[in-house]
Amino acid sequence: MDALELLQRFWDDPEELRKFFKKFQKDYENYYGKAKISSIVEKAIEDADTLFETLFELAEDESGKHLSEFFKPLHNKEAGKSYELQLLKAYGTLSNSFLRVYAIRYGTSYVITGGAIKLTDQMKDRKHTKVELYKLNLVRDYLKENGEDGEFVYLDI
Question: Is the pLDDT of residue 156 over 50?
């Protein structure tokens, strides 16, 4: 199972999402205000469904143009810049979405490394987002080191 499939499975599982939002309820409330966990879970599932639908539709466009508009630089200070092996993020489609899909620009393709429910300002603030940052850097370094000769393999991260 690849990173995108794992992400889809997690974001479509009400029980797993309920556990996650119970664990990080304070983070959610600090950023979004108070809400029932059942409402948050429902919002996450709806947003994820739309996000994946949009992602798959854009992936059908062979020019990659639309995917380049969907993925934004991970670091906001790089807005408007585009370069090889750039770390990227895509947001859920709902306003003020907490869903993120992470990828690396590789030629005209995008290597998806994972995703997260981001409820804090910095990725380094929580273990689950710190892991996603680690995966982004690990895959980028692999692609940088192996270039076009690198085989695409499933990295057990």
Answer: no
